[in-house]
Every structure is written in structure tokens, then in C-alpha cells.
Design brief:
With 285 residues, this protein is of the alpha/beta class. It contains 11 helices and 12 strands. It is a peripheral membrane protein. Keywords: ATP-binding, Cell membrane, Ion transport, Iron, Iron transport, Membrane, Nucleotide-binding, Transport. It is found in: Cell membrane.
Length: 285
């Protein structure tokens, strides 16, 4: 075991092989998720990002290899023990009709309940804290199915927070949300990382938002990690071409100074910028 890696990473995989039937999704995958950071998986549709996330949460059993969670082989831990260490929010979760936000968030305390220990003052305190952190206190008695997309996603995140886990995994948490609600959810996850020191691992399709919010980006292609590291090191024109088969320019985001991908595909080439004299003349008119 790499002790240095174990000390600074919340989740690791060693020689991980994932399969669906006879189809190999990943082969001999070694991956480290840095503790206390935001990690984002990127890659083309069907490359295995969600499969990898599910395996890290023990929702998919590896064909071979191991996943180490907080220094322990995740396969040796009980279900409740895993649920106390990490929470996962799958893509497009659904709640029973009529379930209130408060009832949903209370379900996050399930890992701490047993026949000896029923609902406690701490459970109540953690639920209130989760509602406060997600700004959902005023909506606690509303039914989940009556909420807007952004509010609904915040309610589900509140449930994961009530689990009181140091690590949170999210599969495409911004899918089906408009841009304003995407930023709302990502800002919330950023705050949880900064103020609560939560390790955040998520799958995102928007590469520019991934660059803005991630400390660490994992690009996936051809059953392996194609590139991994800070956005400025990973997101290049060469990588976008290799991983997404897309032509682009990578420029600096004018607000956050992170990489910003400007795609143009193969059928439409960029227009040359007009000469300075022409621009000046047009401005004068």
C-alpha cells in the first residue's frame, strides 16, 4: 500500500477492473481522489464516468482490483459503515409523491439508526444544519415534487449532507437545470468544500464549469484515465481533440482565469479577426 497516497486521498482504486457482462468498462485502473478537494470527471457520453462513480460508492462490484475508502478496502465495510463515510447522489433521483423536504432530508440519518438507537437530538440537529446549509429551511414543509429544479436538487443535496459524510459523490448534479440553477447548485457544492471541508466528486458535462469549480479534473477515455490533474494542466486543445474528437480553442476565462473551451467542430472554421484598422473605423462610425 502507498501510505503517502492513503494519507492524502479519501478514495483510491488499485488495479480496478469494471465490467457489464462481457464488456470491460475499465481495466487496471489506478485512481486517487484528493481529500478535501473538488474532483470532476469529464469525458464523452458512454465512456464510463457514471460507472466509475458508482463503483467508488460500492454500487457496482468490481470484477477485480480494489477500492480503498479512508484506508480500508470498501468491500470489507458494512453498508451502514460505507454510508457514514460517503454519500452518493445519483442522476435524476425521484421521491415518492407528497414526500416533504423535511421527510426526505431525515432519510439521510438512516445509517445512524438501529433497534437500540432511535431518532436522537443529534439526528434532529444534523437535519436542521443540512437544511440551513442548503438554504432549504423555509421550504422544509413543501413537497419535493412541488419545487423548482434547483430547489429540488438542493433538497437532495441536503439529504446527503444529513448523512454527515466527509465525501460526497454526485452524478451529473446539473443535468436538466437551466444555467442559473446550475450555478446555484455548483456554488452550494463549492461552499460545502470551502467551509465544511467536504471532498466533492462529481460528473459534469460542461467542461468550462468543471474548470471553474474543480481543483482536480479526471478525463476518461478508452477504459482508462486519459489525463488527471489541475484544470490548467488537463484541459488543452490537444486533450479536447483526443477525448471528445472536437476542434476548439482553449482561452483564459476572463472572470476566473481558468481554461475556457471555445468549440468550433470540423465543419465550421473560426473566422479571422478583422484588422485593427477596420475595427477602429467601424467603432468611429
Amino acid at each position: 500500500m502507498n501510505l503517502q497516497c492513503a494519507d492524502c486521498h479519501s478514495i483510491r482504486s488499485n488495479g480496478l477492473c469494471l465490467r457489464y457482462g462481457e464488456t470491460t468498462i475499465f481495466q487496471e485502473l489506478n485512481l486517487c481522489i484528493p481529500q478535501g478537494k473538488v474532483t470532476v470527471f469529464i469525458g464523452s457520453n458512454g465512456c464510463g464516468k457514471s460507472t466509475l462513480l458508482r463503483s467508488l460508492a460500492r454500487l457496482l462490484k468490481p470484477h477485480s482490483g480494489e477500492i480503498i475508502l479512508d484506508g480500508s478496502d470498501i468491500s470489507s465495510l458494512s453498508t451502514k459503515d460505507v454510508a457514514r463515510r460517503l454519500a452518493i447522489l445519483p442522476q435524476g433521483p425521484s421521491a415518492p409523491e407528497g414526500l416533504t423536504v423535511l421527510q426526505l432530508v431525515k432519510q439521510g440519518r438512516y445509517p445512524y439508526q438501529n433497534w437500540l438507537q432511535q431518532w436522537s437530538e443529534k439526528d434532529e440537529r444534523m437535519v436542521r444544519k443540512a437544511l440551513e446549509l442548503t438554504h432549504m429551511t423555509d421550504l422544509a414543509e413543501r413537497s419535493v415534487d412541488s419545487l423548482s429544479g434547483g430547489q429540488r436538487q438542493r433538497a437532495w443535496i441536503a439529504m446527503t449532507l444529513a448523512q454527515e459524510t466527509p465525501t460526497i459523490l454526485l452524478d451529473e448534479p446539473t443535468t436538466y437545470l437551466d444555467l442559473a440553477h446550475q450555478i446555484e447548485v455548483l456554488d452550494l457544492l463549492h461552499e460545502l468544500n470551502v467551509h465544511e471541508n467536504r471532498t466533492i466528486v462529481m460528473v459534469l458535462h460542461d467542461i468550462n464549469l468543471a474548470c471553474r469549480y474543480a481543483h482536480n479534473i479526471v478525463a476518461v477515455k478508452d477504459r482508462k484515465v486519459w489525463s488527471e490533474g489541475p484544470p490548467s494542466d488537463v484541459v488543452t486543445e490537444k486533450l479536447i481533440r483526443e477525448v471528445f474528437d472536437l476542434e476548439c480553442r482553449v482561452i483564459e476565462d476572463p472572470l476566473f482565469f481558468t481554461p475556457m473551451v471555445v468549440p468550433y467542430g470540423k465543419g465550421k472554421t473560426p473566422v479571422q479577426a478583422p484588422a485593427a484598422s477596420v475595427v477602429s473605423k467601424a467603432a468611429a462610425i
